[in-house]
Structures are given as C-alpha cells and as structure tokens.
Write a structure and sequence with these properties.
Keywords: DNA-binding. The protein has 168 residues and is mainly alpha-helical. It has six helices and two strands. The protein is 66% helix and 6% strand. The longest helix has 28 residues. The protein starts with 18 loop residues before the first helix and ends with a helix.
C-alpha cells in the first residue's frame, strides 16, 4: 500500500479498545502478517514451518542464544523426525547450517547462513520501514504500553496453548 492510498490511523480515543476489539485487532494483525509471509514463502518454495523455524533461530541469535535441533523442535512443537526433515530442507536450501558447539562438541547448534539473512532483509526490510514510519507517531510511554500489551498477549497465548495441549 502506498502512502497515497494508506488509510490514516485514528486517534486512540476514536478506537474501540475493549477486550473484544483488541482480540479482533490481534487477529487481523495475525492474518495480515500471515498473508505477507505467504508471499515470501511462495516466492522461495518454502513451507510455513520453514519460515517459523528461521524466525525462531533468528530470535535466538538476536539474544546471543545458540539454538539446538531439540530446542527448535520444542519451540515449534515438532517431532524429532519432522524437525530433521525441516532442518534437511533448510540446510539443502543453504539457509541454515548445523555446527558443533565450541563449548560442547557433542551439542549441535543451528545458525542462519548469510544467504538467509540477505533474503530476509530483501523481503522484510520494506515492512520494517513501513512499521517504523507508523510507529514514529507514538511517544516513548505509548511504545512501552504497546510493548507491555504485546508481551502480555504473547504470554497469555503461550499459557492457554500449553493448557489446551496438556488437556488433549
């Protein structure tokens, strides 16, 4: 969407912000994010799980955490065989590499290759720039409130998912 045909964001006092409205906004964001990721996925012949795996590995690297295949399986709720197939696809596409840990040679760590980082930057940088432009209208206190809101929403989702999985 270009700036000329982008809808302006209403002032906060014009937005519904009860629980139902917030859930609806989160759902809309999820659907739009999925549509955006689908374009990337289709362009590169990837599975949705491939994108999720790359995101999990990238997020771990951003916090200086090494991700093992077992940790990835746990994060994505995959079996060992499904994780192996996933990693084989990503490795064959030269998007990740499996390397021995420097501190524990028995441990395998997953690392994104430069090609994966380049692909991600090419595709996701325009979205990142658009988000940054939109977020510039929020002051520091508003951004902290949004960060708190998103963190609480993620925690509630993880908790509820875990409870439902435990009951199944």
């Amino acid at each position: 969407m270009t700036p000329a045909n982008r809808r302006p964001v209403p002032d906060s006092d014009q937005l519904d912000h009860d629980d139902q409205a917030l859930v609806r906004k989160l759902r809309q964001l999820t659907v739009e994010s999925d549509h955006f990721a689908e374009i990337f996925r289709e362009a590169h012949g990837m599975h949705r799980t491939d994108l999720n795996a790359l995101a999990v590995i990238m997020d771990a690297a951003a916090t200086d955490r090494a991700m093992s295949p077992g940790e990835l399986a746990e994060a994505l709720h995959l079996s060992a065989s499904a994780t192996t197939a996933l990693l084989d696809r990503l490795d064959a596409a030269e998007l990740i590499e499996r390397v021995r840990s420097r501190s524990d040679g028995r441990r395998v760590e997953l690392r994104m290759r430069e090609q994966a980082k380049d692909l991600g930057r090419q595709f996701f940088l325009p979205l990142s720039a658009a988000l940054s432009r939109e977020w510039a209208q929020f002051d520091s206190a508003e951004r902290r409130a949004v960060a708190r809101f998103l963190s609480a929403s993620i925690a509630a989702t993880v908790h509820t998912r875990s409870e439902m999985a435990r009951q199944s």
